[in-house]
Design goal:
Distance between the termini: 98 Å
Bound molecules: zinc ion
Strand content: 5-15%
Shape: elongated
């Protein structure tokens, strides 16, 4: 005769996991602690800065290409 482990899946209360550290937390919370909230804020700020920087680089490359390709055509020979 074998002893089967009891299935306890249905006994875990509703919860979410912190997106920063992965710890379980309340369903209506965004983060488990102030520290994780700050970490996330910094991450969002870093990502936004990186996005802005790549947009600026993209525009700079496009303007440079435009200058090198089209301005010589407009100059008098
Ligand atoms: Zn956390």
């Amino acid at each position: 005769m074998s002893v089967r482990p009891t299935i306890r899946r249905n006994k875990i209360p509703d919860h979410r996991h912190c997106p920063i550290c992965g710890l379980p937390m309340a369903v209506n919370a965004d983060f488990c602690s102030e520290g994780c909230k700050k970490t996330n804020d910094e991450k969002v700020r870093r990502e936004r800065r990186a996005r802005n920087l790549s947009l600026i680089l993209y525009i700079a490359v496009m303007v440079t290409l435009f200058i090198f390709l089209f301005v010589p055509l407009l100059l008098p020979r």
